[in-house]
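Lab notebook: predicted structure, single chain.

Context: the supervisor wants predicted structures on file for every construct in the current expression panel, including those that have not yet been purified. This is the next one on the list. No modifications to the sequence; it matches the entry in the shared construct table.
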Amino acid sequence: MPRSIWSGAISFGLVTIPVNVVPATEDHSVRFHQYHLEDMGRVRVRKYCELEDREVPPDEIGKGYELSRERVVPVLDEELRELPLPTAKAIEIAAFVPAGSIDPLRIGEGYYLQASGTVAAKPYALLRRALERTSKVAVAKFAWHGRERLGLLRVRDEAIVLHAMRWPDEIRDPGELAPQQVRLSDDEITEAEHLIDRMTREDLEGPDFVDHYTEALEQVIEARREGQAPPQMPEPEAGPGKVLDLMTALQASVAQAKASRGEETEAEVHELPEKKAAAGRTAKKEPAEKTAAKKTAGKKTTKKTAAKTAPKAGAQTAARKDTAQKKTAAKGAAAKKTAEKRTARRPRSA
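Prediction complete. Output recorded below exactly as produced.
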């Protein structure tokens, strides 16, 4: 645990809780110094006195307030530490509010409050438990770094966290930044909600929440230390073309979010409202039923026609046969009569 950077007490009504302020965060950024590139000599910023034209050591440097160009009033650090304020050595709780009522834009750096000594253990645990049960945060005032500040006290695990807060007049009005009014359809809003659902997580752990910039910077430094060429940036993957349709972009984003979570990437079909769906189904069923009826009627007509045609064809065939037989019989009778006449006309021999 890092060293304490401030000591005081939490003033909770008539209850006093001695605490130490400890940084709650760490900065893992890679730091660089300035060097003269020709000979790699260190370039330093030195503090000079304008009147004496000489470098001034740190123990001779202090604060001052400029009343005018000709007059500067010195202010000592001891005087700032002994300011006549009730919040100079205390974090004085002024109110308790729901956590959701605090605009995150007003919340600054976070610090752990550590109970100072065994006497502070019980009131510290009492305040922590009370904040936890009520689901509220405390808004306090304290003086620190030459100014009085607002602070927010909340519970994190078994500790109480102090966040420096900005005063209301330190927050700029975003009114002039708001975009002009646009029209959004219900389908676009619904698709955006689907995207939010797909991208919702229970925590912020995993490869998506790693400082890749620092990792890449460390690789560059290591390569230069070994006398090798620094690693090259990988070619970006060919992304899709520019999407002009907002709904198409939302649907593609939902599919991408599903793929990143290992889910199936088939197109997701969302149900339409009941009325529209019912109308669509009815419209689809009616033509189908009519077509089926037409097909059935056509089949029945074909069967009846075939049944009627079959007897007619048989009768015609029989009639043809009868006619042919009659013609044959008539020809035979005519030939017989002709033969008889020829026989009767021949002369008899003597």
